[in-house]
Amino acid sequence: MGKEGKTDLSSRDDLMGKIVALCKRRGFIFQSSEIYGGINGFWDYGPLGVELKRNLKNIWWEDVVRKRDDIVGLDAAIIMNPKVWEASGHVGGFSDPMVDCNKCKARFRADRIFTVIGRVGDDVIVSAGVEADSDLSARDKVLIEANSKTRHKIDHYRDQIKWVMFSADKVPPNEKALCPLCEGELTEARKFNLMFKTSIGAMEDSSSVAYLRPETAQGIFCNYKNVLDTSRVRPPFGIAQIGKAFRNEINPRNFTFRSREFEQMEIEFFCHESDADKWYEYWRDARYKWYIDLGLTSSRLRLRDHEKEELAHYAASCADIEYDFPFGISELEGVANRTDYDLKKHQEHSGKDMTYFDDQTKERYIPYVIEPSGGVDRAVLAFICEAYTEDEAPNDKGKMQKRVLMKFHPRLAPIKVAVFPLVKKEGMPEAARKIYDDVLASGLTCFYDEKGAIGRRYRRQDEAGTPFCVTVDGQTFEDQTVTIRDRDSLKQDRIAADKVVEYVRERIG
RNA sequence: GCGGGCGUAGCUCAGUGGUAGAGCGCCACGUUGCCAACGUGGCUGUCGUGAGUUCGAAUCUCAUCGCCCGCUCCA
Questions:
Q1: Residue A87 placed within a domain
Q2: How many folded domains does chain A comprise?
Q3: Which residue's CA lies closest to nucleotide B12 at its C1' atom?
Q4: Which of A5, A130, A442, A448 is most buried by a 10 A CB count?
Q5: Is the CB of A405 less than 7 A from some atom of nucleic acid strand B?
Q6: Do A121 and A40 reside in the same domain of the chain?
Q7: Which of A146, A164, A192 marks a domain boundary?
Q8: How far apart are CA A455 and CA A303, in angstroms?
Q9: What ipTM was assigned to the predicted interfaces of this complex?
Q10: d(CA A266, CA A334)
């Protein structure tokens, strides 16, 4: 990280560096397996981070499942029958071997790139890389495209030339595959399958192969019939799930933003085709508002409708909810109209009937699916970036000093209340302990601290994002009141000691 | 995956071949009467990891892991 000569870009980088440092310093997020040198793309949530993340998931679950009568929950297994991933297209689609050019850095599908070499003895008369359907058509293409000098040579040696043709995924020993664009050397063919593979049972043979799910959605689609048959729901209705998913990303980046193990919070909302557009718009707008209500400012948050060309093959429409991170604008959640694509695919592959029969209209149909699918870790990171604030506060001599605070929405804050004795004597610790016990008993997260100067204790809570700090002082013993300090404004109210829980609850909302 | 930069205490970093450092932090005791106070004492290191060169490596070489930036990729 640069120390000086900051451009706009590097000061944004610096901001991300400060956020990463604070996350570690205060125990929000650690790198996985750090003592062994870490492991790329995996992260651990520390004591404050796990509270923050859990708060976020609980609020989501409350808002989309418990407070609604049209959505039910689900917790599906991470490992599913491998046929699920054939039906979803995850096994077939992303496993083509690819090659890169070492020189011009272009990337190609290995089985589509051929190298053609013509030799007389050990002399190479012609060698070229070419994109083609077969080795013979590749040679023809090379002959047609050859320049006049090369053509001359080829004609001259005609019957003596020994041809070698091969695709970039089947390079013979001692040969090298060539780039069709720049004639540079190509890398070995590599398979780019995003799914983590494992095996079931003690013996690792091919019959036992299984995958860690690359998305949670398929667990919902596979249980759609079970839920319909057991939960007395009928379209329009949704199934919600929070769970881990795994993708063997080529290039994990940007702290926890793109990691190989991550958590999704996802709804699959089933409705009639004729209502699909209406529900799509409903969920797109509702999900956008959800983030704003939890404290992401609308200037950094944006809702972006996908262009027609940008849509995945299964989606009729799609919108991204994006956040302007210090490293750039990136997606938090996607809301898509997936049509009846998924249920149809599972009906085809499993042979099981996925239709719904509507008793009132006497219509039988496969429902359309609206999918609001959010990344939990991405949302946590967005709230962390949003909360990170530097301002100035006076020290004990009234001089302004830099202060770092995390302005979490009180609902998200890992610790809701901290309780301090002003000094460690005259019974103040005991009185503060009692208040601490009361707050804990109420179910609010609370932190007790009597170490060091009062100002230091306030600042420590500022970095943890604790919205309220309660202090027991001399006056507490005269009129049973305490001061309660607001994290953002630094203002203090004096309230009755037994009203702390009530005061905080009112402001958490 | 490619190219570049970086990796030293919990954090920020200094240290260009000769006994591992500073500031902050953390812990204890005292002091302290509302915003990173003060005093005294204390703790903290596989110098990312492994190998090599050398009498001697944090320092030079190679490999490897991790982080950052750009490209690439992105169901």
A1: yes
A2: 3
A3: A21
A4: A130
A5: no
A6: no
A7: A192
A8: 41
A9: 0.84
A10: 10
